[in-house]
Amino acid sequence: MNGKKGQKSGSDSPPHDLRRERDELLQSISKGPRITEEFAREHERQEARLRELESENASLRAKVETNSAMRELLQKIEALETDKEELLSRFHAAEAASSEVSARVQEIEAEFANLANLFVASNQLHGSLSPRGVMRRIKEVLAQLVGAERYCLYLASADKNELVPIAFEGVAGDKVRSVSAESGPIGAVFRSGAAAVNEDRDPSAGNHESPAAIIPLSVDEQRVGVIAIFSTLSQKKRFDTIDFELFKLLGQHAAAALVSASLFAQADRKFPGLESFIDLSV
Q: Are residues 252 and 218 in contact, defined by beta-carbon separation less than 8 angstroms?
């Protein structure tokens, strides 16, 4: 028995290093699955990271494309803004030109209206050969074209010292009387031959002592009288350019028309014979 025990202890017992090798082998074998699992997990992580990077890449690419589209859109907006500014500039230029043309058209229309007034007034003054007819037409010009409400026409006496009223309108009869040609505003205009018009004052507020306008009357450069416009209609607050032109027309033609009509009436409305027009060539 002892011998068998001695053989077991000497030859049947596995060598101590073999068990260690076995354990090491078992441990080595047992590491394989863990390494495989770790490798699989690492592979999954790498795949996840790859998908994440692909997603980020797609997002960045879309963003870049969006930014590019935005830049193109902004460039189009800038181009449209430039076109808009150019169109506005052209529109304002056209608008200014249109306003200038409109203003010029209005100016021309006003000039035509003034010429028409002068033409009508001239026709009125020379449209009659009777003193009453001429005086009536002078009144019509004063009332309708000048807007005079109260006025008086004076003619100078033979000695030129007195101005005698021969026609008036809107003035009480007791206030119409002869005035001296040597004093007062009416006499001053007769002596100087220059019209007196206060452009700074409302002509409708004029009165007998301070007329709104005084116009000298002349025939062949000889002063023969004046027209005193004491006041105008209430709606006429100032004299315009056409009024001053009418004043000139009246000053140069009213008295001449009156004188011609008076001479024609004195000649029993007979026209002068041909002998009166002989040697008129100059």
A: yes
Q: Assign 41 to helix, strand or coil.
A: helix
Cα 247–185–137 angle (5° rounding)? Answer: 30
- C-beta separation of 240 from 146 below 8 A: no
Crossing angle of helices 16-125 and 131-140, rounded to 10°: 160
3-class SS string, 211-255: CCEEEEEEECCEEEEEEEEEEECCCCCCCCHHHHHHHHHHHHHHH
DSSP string across 199-210: TTS-GGG--SSS
- pLDDT the model gives residue 14: 55
User: What pTM does this model have?
Assistant: 0.64
Question: In this predicted model, what pLDDT tens digit does every residue of 196-213 receive, in sequence order?
Answer: 998 889 999 999 889 999
d(CA 12, CA 197): 158
Mean of the pLDDT values across residues 89-113? 90
The set of residues, in sequence order, having a beta carbon less than 8 Å from that of 224 and lying 6+ positions away, is 155, 156, 217, 218, 255, 259
Specify the amino acid at residue 135.
Answer: M
Indicate the SS3 state at residue 133.
helix
Q: Percentage of the chain with pLDDT > 70?
A: 89
pLDDT value, residue 151: 96
Query: Looking at beta carbons, which pairs linking 172-181 to residues 24 or more positions away fall under 8 Å?
Result: 175/208, 176/152, 178/154, 179/154, 181/156, 181/157
Structure tokens at 216: 């000298």
Rg (CA), the chain: 59
